[in-house]
Amino acid sequence: MPADPRAVLTRPAPEPDRTVPYGDDPNQVADLRRPAGTGPARPLVIVVHGGFWRAEYDRRHTGPLAAALAAAGYPVAQLEYRRTGQPGGGWPGTLGDALTGVAELPALAAEALPGRVTPAAPILLGHSAGGHLALYVAATAPATVGGVLALAPVADLAEAYRRDLDSGAVAALLGGAPTEVPDRYAAADPRSLVPIRARTVVMHGSEDLQVPAKMSREFVARARAAESDISLVELPECEHFGLIDPESAAWPRVLAVLRSLHDDH
Do you know which Gene3D superfamilies this protein is assigned to (predicted)? Predict the structure, then answer.
C-alpha cells in the first residue's frame, strides 16, 4: 500500500541545536541546525514552512527536511512566523515577520554557530505558503536574499483566492477578496512583484492537489517575461508533500537544485 504522503508532517526529527528569537513574540523565532562535518562556513539556508499561513501548522513539520539539509552540510534555520488565527498574524504581521526573520537570521546564526555560517545573504527554501513568503521577501527586500528555492509555492494570491485554496486561506491572510483589499494583493502577491532579482528555482509536482502546478507554470512565465533569473522544474508523479520529504523519490532532485543555488551563490 502506498505510503501516506502527509506522513512527513508528523514524522519525528532530531531536536535543533539552538532556537533563537528575532523579535519579541513567541512565534518570532527560528530553530538552528549545525551542518554535519567540519567544512568551511557556508551561507545559511532558511526554511520557510507552509500550511496556508494558518496557526495549526508550524515549523516543526519541516524538521525532517531541515535535519536532512544539515546532514548534507548546510547550516539551516527553520523560520517561524505569526500566522492567521494568532495575535499579530495575517496582514501585515505574517509578511513582516518573514522580512524581519530573513534579514536578521544570518547574523544570529553566525553568532550561535560560530565558524559555520558566512555573512552572505541566505538561500530561502520555502514550501507552499512558505514558498509565497520566500518569493515575497526576495521581491521586496532583494538585498537580503541570495537565492530562492520555491517548492510548490502559492505564487499567485489572486488566483489562489479564486480557486478558494484551503477554504479561504488567502482571504484570511489578507483580510478579504482582491476587489475588497486590492492594495494588499498588489503589495503581497508575487505575480504583481516581478521581476525577482535573486536567482530563483520553482519546483512543483505535476500531481499536486493542494496547489495546482499550473499556477507555477504561469508565474514563472510571467517572471521570465519581466526578466527575472528564474526557472521551473516540474516533477512528474510528484504530489505536494514529496518535495519536503527526505524519504521521497523527489528529494534527490530537491537537494541537487539547492546545491546548485548554494554553490552558485
Answer: alpha/beta hydrolase (3.40.50.1820)
Q: What is the pLDDT of residue 264?
A: 76
CB 124 within 8 A of CB 145: yes
Which residues lie below 8 Å from residue 85, measured CB to CB, with a gap of 6+?
A: 54, 55, 56, 172
Looking at CATH, the fold of the domain delimited by 5-264 is given as Rossmann fold (3.40.50)
3-state secondary structure 104-140: HHHHHHHHHCCCCECCCCCEEEEECHHHHHHHHHHHH
pLDDT digits (tens, 9 = 90+) for 155-199: 999 999 999 999 999 999 999 999 999 999 999 999 999 999 999
Task: State the average pLDDT over residues 85-93.
Answer: 98
User: What one-character-per-residue DSSP string does 191-233 give?
Assistant: HHHPPP-S-EEEEEETT-SSS-HHHHHHHHHHHHHTT--EEEE
